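Narrative of activities, Objective 1.

The group set out to show that a structural description can be obtained from nothing but a protein's sequence at a throughput compatible with the screening campaign. Below is one input-output pair from the validation batch, recorded exactly as produced.
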Amino acid sequence: MPAVIRDGVRLHYSDNGSGPAVFFHTGGGGDGTMWQAAGYLDALPGRRHLLFDHRGHGQSDQPQDLEAHRLDEYIADVIAVLDSAGVDRAAMVGYSDGARVIYALAARHPGRVAAIVGIGGVAHPMDIDNGRRELAAEVRQIGFPEWLEQVSASETEPAPHWLMENLAATPTEMFALEVEGWVDAPNEFENFRRIEAPTLIVCGELENTDGAAELAAAALSNGRAQVIPGFGHMQAFWRTDITAPLISDFLARYVGVPAAKQL
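Output recorded for this entry:
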């Protein structure tokens, strides 16, 4: 598994396949292997898959100070991994906080992003309190595994054991530092009007507060939202029987695979 060191933090990623590059960024919990376990790689053949263990997760280092978990650090980490892998431009697929990283990166570095798929709900443009400070305190109090169980129980079907196990492997403090470190980061809507890459937002109906996904799609220069009825935040990731075909069709339209790669 290759790695790159940026500002003293070792960042691990896997690099598999060949063809147009797709970079996968998970959210507050889990590591890069969750994308393969969920079936996303099988659904996107003929492509080069970069699966990232972002800081605090998987085999990457776990910096303990809050300043190491500002959003800017996460953005710079993605650029460092792309540079290490020799990838000038990639399609980006992000889940939850990983989608937020990609939105911000695409706004700042448009030349590095060929297309975007963000899985998970987005903030409403009128949100003035993102609730992240309160969330960090709650998770520290009850522990990340217990918090995950509560999220899973709130959805219309429980998340599978393999996903819960992968997510819960992230230490509570690493999740809390990521959440707390982004408290003062701009609302996603400040990035949407600056994003040039075609963008697909996939989210569950239960997490789409006041039509935020549709508002985001309207703000994007080339964006659309796919809101899945009855789904919550976790289901939007692991129910690849529904989500993966949407993503495959979207990427085929904007970042096609050469015919020889599809054979």
